[in-house]
Each structure stands twice: as C-alpha cells, then as structure tokens.
Design a protein that fits this description.
Number of strands: 2
Structural class: mainly alpha
Pfam families: EXOC6_Sec15_N, Sec15_C
InterPro entries: EXOC6/Sec15 (IPR007225), EXOC6/Sec15_C (IPR046361), EXOC6/Sec15_C_dom1 (IPR042045), EXOC6_Sec15_N (IPR048359), EXOC6PINT-1/Sec15/Tip20_C_dom2 (IPR042044)
Radius of gyration: 68 Å
Number of helices: 26
Shape: elongated
Largest sheet: 2 strands, antiparallel
Strand content: under 5%
Family: Belongs to the SEC15 family.
Helix content: over 70%
Keywords: Coiled coil, Exocytosis, Transport
Protein name: Exocyst complex component
Order of helices and strands: HHHHHHHHHHHHHEHHEHHHHHHHHHHH
Length: about 750
Amino acid sequence: MTNATIQEIEGIDDYWGPAFRSVYEGEGGHEAFVQQLDERIKQHDKEIEKLCNFYYQGFIDSIRELLQVRSHAEELHAEISNVDSNVKETSESLCSRAEELIRARRVELNIAATIEKMELCLPLLTTYSKLKSQVDAKRYYPALKTLEQLEHVLLPRVGPYKWCAKISSDIPRLRQSIQDASMADLRDFLENIRKLSPQVGAMALKQTQDMLGRSLANIVKNKKESMLGGLGKENIGPQCPHELVDFSPLHRCLHIHSVLGAKNDFIQYYRAQRKQQARLVLIPETGNLHDSIQGMKSYLSAVLGFFILEEHLLTTGAGLVSKDWLLDTWSMSVTKVASTLRTNTSLITDPTLMLSIKHQIMLFINTLKCYGLPTEPLPLLLQEMAEHYTEVLMQRWVVVFRDILDNASFLPIEVENQEQYDGIMDTFPYDGDELETQPFPRKFPFSSTVPAVYVQVKEFIYAWLKYSSGLGMGGSRRAAAARHSASLLLSRSFTGCLSALFRRPLPLVQLVQIIVDTQYLEDATSFLYEFISNITGSELVTTQAAGSMFQAARDDAEQQICTNLEKKVDEFLDLENYDWLLVEPTGQASSFVTDMLSYLSGVLTSLEQLPDRARVAAVRAATGRIASRLRHLLLDPAVRQLSSGALHQLDLDVIQCEQFAAGEPVPGLREGELLEHFASLRQLLDLITGWDWSSYLHDVGIEGGKYALVTPRDAATLLEKLKEAEQKSSVFSVLKKNERDRRKLLDTVLKQLKQLQNQDG
C-alpha cells in the first residue's frame, strides 16, 4: 500500500490530495509512509551519486572551460560596461534631443492645429462682431443675413467650443431682438404714415385740381415759366403723393419677416393695424365738419391719403396689400365717409360753405377715379346735398323776401323820366307798349315788389346753378332741376312769406295790389324758364300751370279781402239807430244802409283789376254778412218789443239791399245768386207784414213752400215782440173790434207756432 502510494505521488504532479488522505486514514500508515519515503530518498541519492560519478570528468572540463570563459566574460563585461556607458551617455543625449524634438514637434503640431482652428474661428468671430455692429447700427436685414451665415455655415465648421455654445445660445436672442426691433420700426412707420396721410391726400387733391383746370394756354405758360425760371435747376421735390413717404422701413420689415419665416403673420399684423388706423381716420378730428371748410379738407385729405398709400403698396408691396383686402377696406370706409359727410352737411346753413364742401367732394371723387377706387355712394350724396343746398338757399331767400315785403308799400310803380322807366323795363320783363305812348309820369300796374322779387329769383337761380355745375348732369337735367327749385322758391318760400304777411291786418288797397303782383310774377315765370334754358343750353320747357303757383297766397288775400269787407259791414251796421217802437216808417231806406251800399259799390269798382273769381267771393261775403246781420237785428233777444212801423222800416232797408244784390255789382254771378242771401229774411218779413198765417201754417214742413225758410221759432219770436209792443201802446186805450180780432188771431197763431216749435224740439 505504501509503495503504491509513493508511486502514485511520483506519477502525479499536481493533485496529491487522495494519496495523502489514504496515508492519514490508514492505520499505522503514517509511520510506514515516512519510513518508505526515507528509503525512496536514499535510493534516489544513490542514483544521483552514480550519475555524478559517471559525468565527473566532463564536469571538471566544463568547470575549467567555465573558468576560462569567466576571464573572457570579465573582459567582455568590462568592454560591454564601457560600451554600455558610452552608449548610455550617447543615448541619454540622444533621448534628450529626441524628447526635445518630440516636444517641438508636438508644439508645432499644436501650433498648426491652433492656426487651423483660428483660421476657422476668425471668420466666425469677425462675422459675430459684424453682426453686433449691424444690430447696433439698426441694419436689421443685413444683420439677419449675417446671422443666418453665422448659424448655418460658420458655427458648424468650428466645433463644440464653449464660446461657440455661447454664441449659439445668443443667436435666438439676437433673432428675437431683430424681430422686435423691426416691429418697433414698423410701429414707427405706421405712426409716421398716419401723420403724413393728410399731406399725401392734400397733394393728390391739388394735383387733381390742377389737372381739371389744365388748358392748352396754361400748359404753354407753365412750360415757358419752367424754361425761363428753372433752367439748369433740378426739381428735387416729390412729384407723386406717395413719394412723401419713405417705405424702406416697411420693406425692410417685410424682408426680415420673410427671412424669419413669418411673412404671413407680418402681413396679417400689418393689415390689422392699417384697418384699425382706417377706422381712426374715418373719425373727424375736429368733431364738427360743418363749422369750416378747413375741417372738411383735412378730413377728406386724411382719408384719401390713407388709401393712396395702400394703393401704391398694392403694386409695390410684394403681397403686403391685396386687391380684395383694399376693396373690402375701401367699401367699409366709403360708406362711413358718406354717412359722416351726410350728417355734417345736413347741419350747414351757409350756402357758400356748402359750395366749398361740394367742390372738395367733387375733387375727392375725381381723385378716387384717378386711383381706380369706386366712388359709390358719393354721387348720391351730392344729389342729397343738392336738395339740402336748395333748402338752405330757400331759407336765405326767405329772409330776403321778408325784407322786401316788410319794406314794400304795395303801390303801383310810378316813374318820372325815361331813365327810371328803362331801369324798370331792364329789370322786369313787362310788355310796356301801352305805357310807351303815355306821358310821364307813367304808372306800372305792379308794385316795386315784383321787379325786386324777380331779380332775387334770378340771383337764386345763379346760386343754384353754381352748385349743379360739375355734377355730371346734362343740360336738360340741370334746367329741369333749376326750374323745379325756382318754382319751389316762389310757390313755397315766397308764398309762405305772403301768408305770414297776411297774418297782420292790411289795407284793402294793399291786398288788391298783392293779388295783382302775384299775377305778374306768375306771368314772368316763363321768362325765368327761358333764362334757365339760355344758361344751361337746354330746350325751353314750361312746367308750371298758369295761375297755380300763387293760388294759396291769392286765396289768403281774397279771404282777407272778404274779412275786411265783413268788418266794414259790421262797422256800418253797428252805427244803426233803429227806433223799434217807430209808429210810421220814414218811407225810404236808412242812411247807414245807403252809405254802406255806396261804399261797397266803390270798393267793388276798385277791385276791377282782380279776377272775377275774387270779386265774386268779395261781394258774396259782403251780401251774406249784410243779410245775416239784418236778420240778427230783427231777432236779437235784446230787442223785446217791435212795432209795425219799425218792421216796415227794416223792410225798406232790406228792399234797398235786395236792389243792390239784384243789380249784379260784379260779373260772373249766377242770376239771383246774391238774392239768395236775403231769401230767409225776405220770407220772414213778408209773412209778418202780409199776415199770411194761413198759408204758412198750411205749408209748414213742406219743401218748396212759400215760407219754407221761416222756422216756427223765428216766427214766434217776432210775433212775441209785436205783441209786447201792441200791449204797451194799448194799455190806456179801448181796442176796436178789428183790433181785438187781430189780437185774438195773433194769440191763436202764437199758440200754434209754439206747438209746432215743441213738436220740432
């Protein structure tokens, strides 16, 4: 077992664990193993000794050779040491030189790399410095181009340095600052363009006015003046309105935002700001444009200048303004402009200011046409203003007419010599053939009011035609409108002044003269229409019906004539001095009645110049008033007693009036027309004086009866008055039989009349 273990140990070189375990686990195996191991060592020592003895001589020889080699080795070692020291010295200097060379080479490489990097960085730094200077100089568009070059070309070349990262992080801030600065420039531009818009519009209006007033003579004159006075001189002033504005800030901002990729946002922002400015422009700065022409000029110039600049940008703004946007903004604005002008012009009461404003609006419209902008609804506004202008003129001429009427004497014009006569004939178109043969002094049938009014109407036509010029109306339309305005002036304004004149009491002579004057003015309208046709170059047209222009004024005058006659009748009848208890009549009409009828005859004779219609109305009013007053006198409750003599005296007065009425004092009356006014009074008097009660009581209530116009009340009233008078006269006398019978009949009739009166009630 021990031998096997030792053999196993000798045969195994690396793992002896199992062998040692078997030695230590066996009984007594440890001592045996140690003993066997000693024997094995001794055996190997014997074998080594045998092997050494076998090779001993060779070993001695080897030792001897080794000793010889030793000396040589020492020599060689000395030589090698010497060489080594020499090499070491040489190599040390060489190494130091090599290290120096390596260091120099490394420095050289570093310098080359540094130069190369510096060559890459230098354009970046130069460009960055240039960018800073451009931003400081507010050259934003070149700065933006430099920024793009810096960001996309130079920075990628350089590399990831910290200062490059600093520049890279600074680029968005610079871009934003450029954008903010450009927007600030845009706001400054918008503020500046708003201030310059009135100047632009004023220059455009002036150029349009010069163009409209241009003629061949003016062109030649201006050319000569420019050649003589401006030879060798250059006109450095702006030639077009839009040249007053520097658009370069706007174009720079547009280019900047195009580079930034925000062109659409910029366009929308610009349009929104301009539309907001348009709303501000449409609000008048002065508030009241109707106060002066300067405010109107400033307002129209500001509006016009705004859209002239936008129209210029339409062609040069690279899409900044579109045609649709411009037309949409203008459509909104022109409606507001028309409304503002309409509101302010409706408050104007000065025709001169109206003419100036109309001229400005016409210039405004013509300038809009030059720039291709629609003009609707401004022409319609001018037509509305024409109506208001007519009203303003009429109001002014109302004052003129009132002055003429207040200072008028309403007496026929009387001239003392040929010069005065020619002056009237030159002023008013009158056919004076009859007056030509008469000696001086000559008297015209009309008063001084007629030529004065005629002249003022011509002045009105001149003033109206001033407004209508330049409106694009043809001669026929202008003439028709002028005729209409002149007719309105006479039929409304002058007639209104006459009506106001009639509100105060006027003498009959003046009323007659006013009616005559209106007839001559109506006849002169044809000459006014001819005057209008000559000025406008149109065909003569007569639109006013004859006798209808002043009919309302004549009606008022005729009514006042009738009123005056009625008042005069009342004055005569107020002078009556009837003795209602008169025993016997005088046998003739009362004096106040004859005086009244004589006065009426004279008045009707003085009315021969009036139309038959007016004279008929006057005599109707007078006779009607006479009849009603005489009837009132007869039935007046204040007169309680009435004698037969007084009744017959009143009958004589009525007969006198009936004779006046039957004589037809004026032509144009129906036969017996005036007698109808006295019919009821005549039947009442005939009934009482004829004592025909049987016929009356028989025909009561029957139409066409002999006393159909007599009512039971009036008959009873009159009988009671007669009864009272008879009772008073017979108190102390004895009545005869026939008087007693008459008294009984009176009582019976009175009783029946009261019954009929009660039935009617």
